[in-house]
Design brief:
Order of helices and strands: HHHHEHEEHHHHEHHH
CATH class: Mainly Alpha
CATH topology: ABC transporter involved in vitamin B12 uptake, BtuC
Strand content: under 5%
Shape: globular
Largest sheet: 2 strands, antiparallel
Radius of gyration: 19 Å
Distance between the termini: 54 Å
CATH architecture: Orthogonal Bundle
Number of domains: 1
Length: 297
């Protein structure tokens, strides 16, 4: 493999890994506070692409305004799911919340089929993102630079919020102990809702970037990316935001390089993520940056 081809594949892998990282952050934030896997997260990511699609196609809005509206609507949707599907079960057994999460996922998928139809739709792409930049013998779409930069910028903003704001302090307190946080005067429900909102906003950005990179959207498009981003969060250490980003990059680059180096295994590209998950659970169950957490009985 030539150096140019290697750089081309690395650019593809970093771009894909950035998308996984954006979506994985939402998984890891919710788990960090609720010890809950939000299985509806991939479907919230899917809904964001439809919000952006119809804003552009039906209302003829410019892409930047459509993306902004999609982020707002997706954030509201994430908060609504938390209020309707998770909050009433706050004190219920964990298995009940898990079943509710799976039910919310199925509900969003089938609702999307009813509202938007089951046929794939072509996601509108602005020329700003499709322009090709040549670096020596390597040709890279501008989008491949935009995605990692966006991911890193949003990660830095999120880390600032968590470490330097009252809301972030409340999130950290709730993640340690709900009862103690409540005794300290922290509004648990509000903090959890904000966490879902932030995670959903990041999923919205990831969804629109996904639509630009793979310009075909359909109601079940969030299933496999959602599972892979969950795996990325586990690889990095679920509950750890920086770990989720690292896990996303590992998974994205690993997938692309597997196809590049072993083209005969292209059909097993999705299986790579699940094999990696099994290996992580066997040899480092807490993930790369995860901490051992004692479960409360």
């Amino acid at each position: 493999m030539s150096l140019g081809m290697l750089l081309q594949h690395m650019a593809n892998g970093i771009s894909l890994g950035s998308l996984y990282a954006l979506i994985a952050i939402g998984y890891t934030m919710v788990y960090g506070i609720l010890r809950l896997i939000n299985f509806a997260h991939g479907d919230i990511f899917m809904m964001a692409t439809y919000f952006a699609f119809y804003s552009v196609v039906s209302f003829n809005l410019p892409w930047y305004l459509s993306f902004f509206i999609a982020i707002i609507l997706t954030t509201a949707l994430g908060m609504l799911v938390e209020n309707l599907a998770y909050r009433p079960l706050r004190d219920a057994p964990r298995i009940s919340i898990l079943i509710s999460a799976i039910g919310a996922s199925f509900l969003l998928e089938n609702l999307a089929i009813i509202l938007f139809g089951g046929r794939p739709k072509a996601f509108p792409i602005s020329e700003l993102f499709t322009k090709v930049i040549k670096i020596g013998t390597v040709s890279i779409q501008r989008l491949f630079f935009i995605i990692p930069v966006t991911t890193v910028a949003l990660l830095m903003i999120l880390i600032y919020i968590i470490n330097h704001t009252k809301t972030g302090m409340a999130m950290r307190a709730v993640s340690k102990d709900h009862e103690t946080a409540r005794l300290m005067g922290i509004d648990i429900d509000r903090t959890i809702t904000i966490t879902f909102g932030i995670g959903s906003a990041l999923a919205a950005v990831g969804g629109m970037m996904w639509g630009l990179k793979f310009p075909q959207i359909q109601p079940l498009m969030g299933v496999i990316p959602g599972l892979k981003c969950f795996i990325a969060a586990v690889i990095g250490g679920i509950g750890n935001i920086s770990g989720a980003v690292i896990g996303g990059f590992i998974l994205g680059v690993g997938e692309i390089m597997l196809v590049a180096l072993l083209p005969n295994l292209t059909g097993y590209r999705d299986a790579f993520a699940f094999v990696l998950l099994i290996l992580i659970l066997l040899f480092k169950p807490t993930g790369i940056m995860g901490e051992k957490i004692s479960e409360k009985v």
